[in-house]
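Entry for iron/sulfur cluster complex. Fields follow.
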Amino acid sequence: MIMSVGALAALCFVIATALAVANKYLQVDQDPRIDATFELLPKTNCGACGFPGCLGLAQAIVDGRALPGKCTVMTEDERNGLAAFLGIDAGVQEKVVARLACAGGTNVARNRASYTGLDSCRAASLIAGGGKGCFWGCLGLGDCETVCEFDAITMNEHALPVVSEADCTACGDCVEACPKDLFSLHPVSHRLWVACRNLQKGEAVLADCEVACDACGKCAVDAPRGVISMVNNLPIVDYSARHAAPEAIERCPTGAIVWFDEQRGTVTGNAARKILRHGARTGAPT
Amino acid sequence: MPVNKASNTDEFVKGLWRDNPVFIMVLGMCPALAVSNTALNALTMGLATSFVLLMSAICVSSLRHFIPRETRIVSYICIIASFVTAVDYLLQAISLELHKSLGAFIALIVVNCLILGRAEAFSSRNRLVPSVMDALGMGVGFTLALLSIGAVREILGAGSLFNVPLFPDGYQTWTVMVLPSGGFFVTAFWLVVVNWIHQRRALSP
Amino acid sequence: MNGTPALDKLPTSALAMYRSIMVIGALCALMIVTVFNATEARIARNREQALAAAVNAVLPEARVTVPVALDAAGALHTADVLPALPVFLGYDADNQLVGAAITGIGMGYQDNIRVLYAYSFERQAIIGFKVLESKETPGLGDRVETEAHFIANFEALDAQLDATGNSLANAIVPVKQGEKNNPWEVDGITGATITSFAIGNILNDSASEWVPVLEANRQVFAQAPAQEGNRGAGE
Amino acid sequence: MTSLTSRLTDVLADVFGRHTFGHGIHPPEHKEETRERAIEQFDFAPVLVVPLSQHLGKPAVPLVRAGQEVVRGETIAEADGFMSVAMHAPVSGTVRKIELAPSISGSMVPAVFLEPFPASTQEVSDGAPCDVETATPDEIIEAIQRAGVVGLGGAAFPTHVKLRIPDGNFIDTLIVNGIECEPYLTTDHRVMLEQADDVFMGLRYLLSATGAERAIVAVEANKPDAAERLRAACPDDLPVTVDVVPVKYPQGAEKMVIKALLNREVPSGDLPLDVHAICINVATTAEIGRLLPHGRGIQERVVTIGGPGIKRKGNYRIPIGTPIRFALDQCGVDESLSRVFLGGPMMGAAVSNLDIPITKGTSGITAFTTSETGDPYSGKPVYPCIHCAMCVEACPLYLNPSQLGLLAKTEQYQVMVDDYHLMDCFECGACSYVCPSHIPLVQYFRLSKRMARRQQAAEQ
Amino acid sequence: MKILHRQLEIASSPHVTSGASVDVIMRSVTLALAPVCVFAIYAFGIAVALVLAVAVVSCMATEHVARRVAGQPSSLGDWSVAVTGLLYGLTLPPGLPLWMVAVGGVFGVGVAKVMFGGLGSNAFNPALVGRAFLQAAFPQAMTHWTPLAGPARFTDVPTSTLALPFAQPTYDAVTAATPLAALKFEGTATDTSELLLGMTAGSAGETCALLILAGGAYLVARRMMNWRIPIGIFGAVAALSAVFTAMGASFPAPPGFMLFSGGLVLGAVFMATDPVASPLTNAGCWLFGALIGFLVVVIRLWGGMPEGVMYAILLANAVSPHIDRAIQPRVFGSVKS
Amino acid sequence: MSDLSHWSIFINAALINNFVLAYFLGLCPFFGVSSKLDTAVRMGGAVSFVMLVASVCAYGINHALELINAPYLRIISYTLVIASTVQLVEMLLRKLSPPTFQALGIFLPLITTNCAILGLALFQTNRGYGFSQSVVYALGAGAGFALALVLMAGVREKLDLASVPALVKGTAAALVVAGVLSMSFMGFAGLGA
Ligand SMILES: Cc1cc2nc3c(=O)[nH]c(=O)nc-3n(C[C@H](O)[C@H](O)[C@H](O)COP(=O)(O)O)c2cc1C
Ligand SMILES: Cc1cc2nc3c(=O)[nH]c(=O)nc-3n(C[C@H](O)[C@H](O)[C@H](O)COP(=O)(O)O)c2cc1C
Ligand SMILES: Cc1cc2nc3c(=O)[nH]c(=O)nc-3n(C[C@H](O)[C@H](O)[C@H](O)COP(=O)(O)O)c2cc1C
Ligand SMILES: Cc1cc2nc3c(=O)[nH]c(=O)nc-3n(C[C@H](O)[C@H](O)[C@H](O)CO)c2cc1C
Ligand code: SF4
Ligand code: SF4
Ligand code: SF4
Ligand code: SF4
Ligand code: FES
């Protein structure tokens, strides 16, 4: 009995010594807060923060190179929790969402050729642009929907993607995915929106899509000075000019420029309503 | 700071299904497959493991402030190994036959990833009562998982359940079920069933 | 997320480490020893019973068994420590040598098979057989333990020595089921040919080694060593 | 019969390991309908659309304004730097506008819209001639750039760029590629038959510009008449041989020609230059021989219009900028026309918009009807890859299309580039052609290359 | 201009295909197997027809139902599961209870094909997985061989065939030994000519080497099968058995006997060549064949069982991804050795 | 002491009674680290190495325990010694070759508590193997473990490119592969004779 206890104690002594020695000479230092912070991050590794994955951001936050607000995926509670844990500022930013610059669903835009092949916008865009009449328009095969890890994008009945503002974390995957570069990230406060990328002007444009911008320039005239400028046959909204106003959309003949209203949702101008017979407008927040 | 809000019942229940050690966390697979060739073996193994799980949870949780970070693993192993040795001898004292049919796997409870995993992930960070609830939940979850595998294997492989014949004479036994490959297949089958239930749950809000 | 991340970066003092490990080690050792002491006797009894039951199964006449072993010089003597493949001499109620229970081992279908069989001095034959350990396929290989016609082989499997007394007169050979014509043949099992043949070969190998030795020492051990009693268990 | 004998030569060549390359396929050639038809001059369309970018490299810079009148052959856009070539007016007429016009890639590109003068004689204006006897290599290269010459074999790579040999390197063999392995196409065949003298004239310029010791004209065995004609017309003073190579697709690809003729392998990722060879299409060569002595520029090219969807199949000399719609109207199309591509069916690009113009790179217009049996995907189910290795046995570059296809499907683009040489694939289509599962491998690879490039760009 | 106001179709190049198609290939395999099936029925009686029918139906039904449950269109149209069913049936003992045939078919296709993702995804040969499962589940039934059917007994069905589901089969008194078992356990060798003609006991479709080889030759001629695999196997088996016999193996195994006995020919020609589970490159196929040959000889000569073709192919299936990784085609223009 | 030949011990441990496929030992790392081939190879190597170390340790400890007649300390002392040895190896690795450490990630600690290792130590003791037999046994078990792991990884990488149904993807698919492998390994039965 004594023998056994002694033997085991001796064994433990040897092991403890080995560990103590190893602990002293072989220890590799790493700030334990990095792991802890990583644990608190969502671990989706979406990269929206601009760091290589969540571990990268954890490292950066602990090193003081970034604030928890960089992560667009965490809920506010989680962000504050992390900030409190590290005793730093959360650095919350305004909510940013993805917006689509095309409204040419199958109800209003025509296809020139019927495409067969891989079921992907990126693949289709390599085959004569994908066959859509408007070269700039959405191909509707849903690559953006597929890549969105947060299920924030759904394709509507006219094969146009619809972004759910609530779910969108502004990770930017859809921006990356769309071969027609139709998505961009905008703060929700950007309410004036040009839902078209067509660089042509006049009648030719409307032959391919009823809701295209035909570069008439009325919005640029109607908006307060300096808010909208016509560049390459498209209106460009200067969001830094904070006085963007809904009146710019009123006379748009096709409804290519819209206003996202907090209450009424997507609003098109009066002049455009007559043209749009075929159902709901799309590409707008729900 | 993130706070552990779960109630003690939650800690217990989660091991049964949501965090089931075998089907969800894929821990402790070795005994789950090796000694699940009959329902009785599965039950014995499940109980033995649960016992060790419970006792080590109690010790680890009570001693959690006493054990420094560096010696954590060694200490836990020491504690677990003692209880396993105890179980080993107790079982031999109870029935040599049963002990023999579980083979080396009683001793191998020491290295069952589940036990050390729970000690490390839960007991070492939580107070006594939640740790006990967690250990009980995990133990029962583990036992149920073993039993469900063991039952299928015994029914098909031997035509009996807990050594009670279920079929009339002339039943064709499925030898494969008591062989190693059968263990893999039955566990895979259960995993698919579990996944399927999860998928169904996810679909229906 | 359970618990809070541990943030103490302070290195632990060696003392704390020693303290924790040593204390835990000592407590554990104490517990193990206690349990061991408490169960030791019972386990020993279980073991004894198990082995005795096995020996009894193959050599029912024996009342007393004595383990024997060969020493380096090849002489037979009673064994204090059981070897890996123990051999027991069996004595009847009158302390007369009736037979021996011999352990044999050999490759079966899957892995090694360990068997215990009884040799009867009187009948010069193998008269009992039991599988101690096997990993043979249930329902196939393990039929060697249940199949009546196979067990019947060991009611009297001829193991006479030849004239020299150094080897069996007829080697024990396994044959396919239903083809047994001689008392030294082992009638195999269809569907478990490999296992049943393996048993035959194990018996042949083991008997070729042990029967000459036993027969040569038959007189020396004719009487049971009085005081030793029934030992046979305990490793 | 010819195809049988050529297949036989191919087998023999394979056995002796000479004169061709490994793997490859034998699609039906379908050349018999147009190869006998002499080149015909084409009419002018009501509006000609001359894109400023018809070549790889930078677009040309327009020299004309809307409303301006131009003479046929006049330079209407000049090269923008070395990786660019000039554009010439294909017709005498008025510049209507310079605006976006559709292109074969589907994108909208700037183009000069020209309206022909109805009454013009359409005389071609001459420029400063380049004398082959006296011009220095640099002068020839400059003249070629001024003439707007790009590869007429399909890739439309500016020819003068290829001819500029970097210091320290050299060319020993100039290969004139008259192989034309694409089914249906017979432009190079007709050029060799009808413009043999232009070819040899062009060769003089090219030999002089590159300093190559010799030239080989490579002709596929299915055009014995062309080989015959070239041999007969070959001037004695030129170090030129005419080599006949077995019929096999894609024998015409640069790397395959060089392998067949010189038994050299262009290293993966390198240029022919690195094995001291250069490969110029025979029509490009003929065009150089035709234009440079007069200082003219390219304003038309030979195009095979064929395929089951065309009524009057043939080889036509068509002004650059002619809309495809006009060209098809001229030749007549079948009621059930369903597909049109520029080039042949193996590598040709599908046309989604008939308003796109014929450019310098257009070697053929092939039209299929709905009944065309070779139609790949409509109606045929796409099965999963069964690892049959037919694609592996077909790929002339010895890639592993099967694995590449699986990787593409799971979007592992970087692995495709790093471990499976994705970037080597020249999209010949041999793998898709043989695949019994009808997997659109080429499309996968094109997409994957694009994605890999984007990922690489994003990383930098 | 009137042409084309209809929409054009666009797709990626190439715009033509060779016409090869998976369903054509698979149908050709069934065609190549047809004579083997007919011979099996001729040799072992009508029971084999039942076995084959149940095998094919159980395999096809499993795949069809699984696809339906998963909400996918049926994939019976690619014919691959028909090939699986047929080959699976041909590897079974002629008198196997029909319910066991169905169990193995469901397992082989359900587990080794559907669960891996269907056509093209199965890492192991589904037919053989089905058989291996039966061999492990019902080893007795799977090693019970009915003798050749005489003309009179052609219409007789062995009692075991019709055993009730889940019930142990009862066997007719007469049994036979396969040539390999006869050699291994009794030391009696069978004549090579007998093996070639197939008048021996064994699995339903494995006995007539000549017909199997003819079917294989047909597929090779149509370029639907890589001949390097069977040739690799035959070469390895012949060479190794000659060497081992010369070195004095536990029993003599003349190459001729080794080649044409057991499931070797059927396995080598039709099962090792399953494109899905074999390597891609030709060099890889040689290696794959040699590996199978090696394993077959080792298992036959030293293993517990008389036959090892099934296990050898399954093991080689597991090695095949490594072969594919190690042996890639030499890319054009990469440095020459 | 057992008198089996080294060859027979090796073949038995590596193929017939493969630790993973027949004895179900070390399944956690087997499923955890078998999805990529290169980690699988390294893990196989690491386990083989630790097995060797464990086998030698166990042999020594067993003798020591027999000396003081305390067989009941076997489990605890095997575990402790093996665990701390592995932990030392792990620390050394972390110090000397951070990339290797990184690659094996959280699985290095798993080796510590891998039942294959302890199983090996206990089996060799139960079977009464001598020193050289123990070493051969460890080598065989390690080779078998590595073989199973590598085969598994190859198949799983292939499955990565396949369209495995969502219900099966992951552990269930791995279990099926293990099952088929285990059935295939039955072909090796009897080879160790
Ligand atoms: C999974 C499996 C397990 C087997 N197990 C055994 C066994 O334990 N013992 C045995 O003798 N044969 C076993 N066999 C059968 C042998 O393969 C062999 O067929 C048989 O022993 C010879 O049978 P026979 O008597 O009909 O000639 C097994 C076969 C399989 C497929
Ligand atoms: C960036 C770039 C530079 C090239 N430079 C040369 C060159 O210096 N010399 C040359 O012979 N070809 C050069 N090439 C041309 C290619 O080798 C090839 O001839 C051309 O892309 C057309 O090939 P194809 O028609 O086979 O597709 C260059 C190509 C590219 C894309
Ligand atoms: C698959 C493939 C096939 C080709 N076939 C031909 C051909 O048949 N004839 C030809 O002149 N060029 C062919 N080319 C283009 C040649 O590779 C090479 O670029 C061309 O001959 C260079 O001449 P160019 O720049 O004057 O066009 C082919 C290219 C590829 C990738
Ligand atoms: C030459 C050839 C051999 C085949 N052999 C098998 C086979 O042995 N087992 C099988 O299930 N399928 C076989 N198939 C069919 C097919 O490949 C099989 O169903 C796939 O394994 C299913 O994904 C074969 C197909 C071909 C073309
Ligand atoms: S927005 Fe872009 S990615 Fe999304 S469906 Fe349209 S084209 Fe495709
Ligand atoms: S919608 Fe776009 S930006 Fe928003 S979460 Fe989805 S992929 Fe990311
Ligand atoms: S398209 Fe690319 S991969 Fe396919 S055969 Fe041609 S070169 Fe090879
Ligand atoms: S030809 Fe098609 S099916 Fe065959 S290996 Fe290549 S990609 Fe796969
Ligand atoms: S239980 Fe054996 S390794 Fe996890």
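NOTE: Chain F has a mean pLDDT of 84.
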